[in-house]
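BUG: 3D viewer hangs when loading the predicted structure for this chain

Environment: internal workstation, default settings.
Expected: structure renders.
Actual: progress bar stalls at 90%.

Input used:
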Amino acid sequence: MINLNKAIKQLKELKKLGKNLDLAAENWNQDWQTLIATMLSARTRDDVTIPVANKLFKKYKTVKALAKASIKEIEKSIYSVNFYRNKARNVSNCAKMLDKLYKGKVPHDFNKLIQLPGVGRKTANVFLAESGKQAIGVDTHVHYVSKYLGWTKQKNPHKAEEDLKKLFPKRIWRSINYILVKFGRSYQSKKKKNEILDEIKKIK
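Structure tokens produced before the viewer hung:
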């Protein structure tokens, strides 16, 4: 396993190399918006997700309003994101559960979050990290870079998350997804990305 000092230096370098791009989970006024936008962003580029989420939140200003909307209405608002039909159903059911069980508030508890429709480990962890908690959301960018640099050898994202938690001190967990996603999104070409990662590998 890679040593901590080297991994931290690599993470700092990745942070410098990432462009200042907006991420889907960032800059929302309310927790439920952060959660829903993160759900919508699964397997969809953030630059597609953000305007879709904006449109949805302008139409439905509260969790209760979203819970009352029909799945068809939600589909119309979010059809630009991948798997929009499945996501519309999850958004509707998630809003209903938040309204009924939590009075429209999003629980800041991992085990309660993953009980919500459409919320898996990655979404729950990204939400918690965005809310200031120390959590690591392992999406495709995080998994790819972590494996390439030898931070993990695991193919399973959950096991990769456990490796990252063992490697990095808890105080920086929440920054890992943020840094690696910004880096990953800054370089569309896999060849270019790998060239940069090859240089980062050489850091002592």
